[in-house]
Specification:
228 residues; mainly alpha; 0% strand
């Protein structure tokens, strides 16, 4: 019973952090991308700004052993995030943002479902993630165009934030009704990265999206080291 209460408490804590820090990250990435380039905005969202506080709070509330378990789950989620970034970047030159995000989403949910069935140790998860990251960076697609900067309408940022909140809350509401494996796969879905990549693709074009997701991947070593 205590374990069930702890799991519910951790889920509520994570959701609270997501709905407070998630929109803030989207807004900061939006403005940082306009000021310093889309790659810099991507580097910001790649840092453990939401997962770090989550692991810390869970460790304080439930003990270090439970915090270790939560960190292990976050580490597995980074595998799905890395694959999402590479798949979206790889297929986006061939299609519009809607088709690209649909395929990337299907891929990342499949990967998330698989990781719930593979009993990774922390070391195995860490090695797997580093290998995936190294391969993705080595074979990162090239673009012949430069990122473009256009004036976004004033309504776009509120819409980005609203979409982010809707996805976070929607996934949290669906999870209890879908079973542990499917809900585990949903928990790995990179909401902030998907919202930013789709909006940037539609608004600024392919090169801007690729720069954002590459910037995110460049922050991976810091995030991986922190979680490990």
């Amino acid at each position: 019973m205590n374990g069930a209460h702890a799991l519910r408490g951790s889920a509520q804590t994570l959701l609270l952090l997501k709905v407070t820090l998630g929109p803030l990250m989207v807004a900061l990435s939006h403005y940082l991308g306009k000021l310093k380039g889309h790659g810099m905005g991507g580097r910001l969202i790649g840092l453990p700004i939401t997962t770090g506080p989550f692991i810390l709070i869970i460790s304080i509330q439930e003990g270090t052993q439970f915090g270790k378990h939560a960190a292990h789950g976050v580490l597995l989620g980074q595998i799905a995030l890395a694959i999402y970034c590479w798949v979206y970047t790889f297929i986006s030159p061939r299609m519009n943002w809607l088709k690209a995000i649909a395929i990337a989403t299907a891929t990342v949910l499949t990967v998330g479902y698989a990781t719930t069935h593979i009993p990774f140790t922390t070391t195995e998860a860490l090695i797997t993630l580093l290998i995936i990251w190294a391969i993705a960076m080595r074979f990162w697609p090239k673009t012949s165009t430069e990122p473009v900067f256009v004036q976004s309408p004033k309504w776009e940022l509120p819409v980005r934030i609203a979409v982010t909140l809707t996805i976070f809350i929607g996934l949290a509401a669906l999870a209890p009704h879908l079973g542990p494996n499917v809900s585990g796969a949903l928990s790995t879905y990179p909401v902030i990265a998907s919202v930013i990549s789709a909006f940037n693709h539609r608004r600024y074009g392919l090169a801007s999206t690729m720069a954002t997701l590459r910037g995110l991947m460049e922050s991976f070593p810091v995030t991986i080291a922190f979680i490990a």
